[in-house]
Structure prediction request, 166 residues.
Amino acid sequence: MGITSRAGLAGIMACMATAGAVAPAAAAPAVPVTVPLGTLNTVLPFDAPTLHTGMPLPVPGAPDGPRYVKGNLLPHNMVPAIPVESALPNTQIDTPLPDPMSDRNLGTPALVSPGTELHTITPGADLGAPLSEPRTALFGLPAIVLPAAGVTAPAVQGAPAATATF
Prediction:
């Protein structure tokens, strides 16, 4: 085994170790985040709220690529729409509610939004050529037609919800 093959093997092993370490993090639907709101204590006459949420990790899917349709010179779905899957993370914001008559708290109102799946599709484009397919009646020459263009509308599908508790 020469020096170059050992170096190549070491490079492959390093890539495999990196992929193994990154794979569990990429499988998580969101990265948890706690937003630091403690500095609001100097401004607010009560304790600052706490906010726990997450940063979603969007995962692009396989696009429905261009396909040829009989009678068209250009393919259908020329710029394909790309599906993107993600998850809206669990979000919770709460703050203690002080009693104005004493030094104790009345309770802790909270607003909780459970996590949900989010499916989106990016916009796509379709374009029609200004020529028709070749015609046999006129020596195989195509006819001039009005060009056509279309846009596939983007879409967002999810079921977010929230509840308030005390």
About this structure: The first helix runs from residue 3 to 27. Helices lie at 3-27. The two ends are 69 Å apart (CA to CA).
